[in-house]
Amino acid sequence: MTVADITFVIFMLCNSLRILAYVPQIARAAKDPNGAQAISFATWGLFLVCNVSAVAYAVVNKADPTMAIVFTGNGFGCCAILLIGAWKRAQHTNRFVEQVAWARRWCAMPPVLAAALRLSPLPAGGERGRRGTSR
Q1: With contact defined as beta carbons under 8 Å apart, do 68 and 77 qualify?
Q2: Using an 8 Å Cβ cutoff, are 40 and 85 in contact?
């Protein structure tokens, strides 16, 4: 076995194992209740473009289907992370927008109505202001 063969085997082994390394990232992103904010779309998008270019290089320059398959797998891992990240952010954004809308409706509620609903007692004298302070 030549040095070129050894480096190729190491290269293919590392890139094959890299496909498995996507699994924990995908699982963490899928479980993240905060919209997968730690996922960088720019970084993972660049990784995807790099893998696509490696597939093109493997097919066009090297005529190596095995190398193309390995980089295709890596590309699918990047796509999965990007899609899950986008899905989780959309869910988180929708939930945040709903919470903000609810808060705005509640804050816009007249103090008398809020007191009647027992959401917030009126300050002394019916004035709006901080509790426990007098003017």
Answers
A1: no
A2: no
| Per-residue model confidence (pLDDT) at position 19 | 87
Structural domain count, the chain? 1
Instruction: Using the predicted structure, report yes or no on whether residue 118 has a pLDDT greater than 80.
Output: no
Q: Which residues of 42-57 are buried (b: 16+ CB within 10 A; e: fewer)?
A: eebeebbeebeebbee
What's phi and psi for 21, nearest 5 deg?
Answer: -70, -15
CATH number at residue 82: 1.20.1280
Count of residues making up the chain: 135
- pLDDT category of residue 135 using cuts at 50, 70 and 90: very low
**Residue 2 burial (C-beta neighbours within 10 Å; 0-12, 13-18, 19+):** exposed
> Is 134 within the bounds of a domain?
no
- The predicted-structure confidence for 2-15, as pLDDT tens digits, reads as follows 999 999 899 989 98
Q: In 3D, which of 46, 52, 40 has the Cα closest to residue 76? A: 52
Q: How far apart are CA 54 and CA 103, in angstroms?
A: 49
Confidence at residue 41, expressed as pLDDT on a 0 to 100 scale: 93
